[in-house]
Write a structure and sequence with these properties.
The chain is α+β, with helices and mostly antiparallel strands. It has a single domain, classed as GTP Cyclohydrolase I, domain 2. The protein is built from 3 helices and 4 strands; from the N terminus they run ββαααββ. Strands 1-2-3-4 form a 4-stranded antiparallel β-sheet, covered by helices on one side. α2 (about 55-65) packs antiparallel against α3 (about 70-85). The longest helix has 15 residues, at about 70-85.
Length: about 120
Amino acid sequence: MDKIGLTGMIFFGKHGATKEEKQVEQEFIVDIEIEKPLDQAGRTDNLSSTIDYSEVYFVTQNVVENTSFNLIETIASTIAENLISKFSFDKVIIKVTKSKAPMGENSQNAWVQIIRENGK
């Protein structure tokens, strides 16, 4: 299957299960892989035959920077829902990493990955 990928997108948002986490912007790194046939785009060299990755970026940015959730699972699911409502593709894989997630005395990266099928 053909794929479109955006990796290492860095955004800052106020997400977390605690009140303290929602008061200060934190770094979130998002990777997206979209499965979609790209043969027509390859033949026609026409942007309308594919997915404009800058639009994928802005959909993702809006979710991370303009909402607030408790869980990174919800961030990933909301990004997927927004992409499914806007674009035609077969499947999307989204990985959201929370940099320096609070865990005990240390801060580590924590991530989730979700896979969603698109019925369009």
